[in-house]
User: What shape does this take?
Amino acid sequence: MDRRSFLFSGLLPTSLGLFAFMLPGCKGKQVAHVLKQDDADMVGSHTAGAETWKPLIEESVGKLLGRQMQVIQPVSHQGGVGLPAMQKRVCFLGVENKSIEEIGDFKEQIYELIDSQVNNSEVFNMISRRFVEAGLREAHLAPSDLFVPANQRMFAAIMEQMQQPFDYLLFAKITSGTTTSNQKNYQRDYLLTLEMVNVQNGTFDKESATIRKGYHKSRFGKAKHY
Assistant: This one.
């Protein structure tokens, strides 16, 4: 018997099935489509995604800026009726992730979304991130170090030398809490907290927003959300 014929005839049916599966054209395809403006965001099956972060940002930033604008505008109008409020400069120190999840590239998106929403307000104007990072490097400081008065003054002086003075420091932090009902189902509460510090008088304001999300594993081991 020909050796090649012998080898082929010795293949089991399961092996033939595996061989056929590996042939070109038998693999599964990944497809995509562009979401329209009125399409709902896809919901992450294993971690938080756009459906979580966007609403958290809109709610927390909206509440914080709305409350601060009520404080700032009456003061700016004391010099005369109808005068426009002077824009306040905000130094955003970035997003700190203290949640159980690795948020990956969403960390940059969260920063940009907060930055854009603040800049779209009529009262606040965000300092360029590049200046902020350069100022921290020059001062050899981490964002958390700025709660020490001496460090804050040194950083403010460096920013003024770069012609980037600021009125407020803004911090963002992500936390999470997980409640497990059994081995398959669990709930995760996502919390986005914003803290704005007035560098002129040391007062601060804090606002947060939360979203609860449930996860469920089917009997086949695939995670689902609900």
Summary: The first strand starts at residue 88 and ends at 97. The CA atoms of residues 68 and 89 lie 13 Å apart.
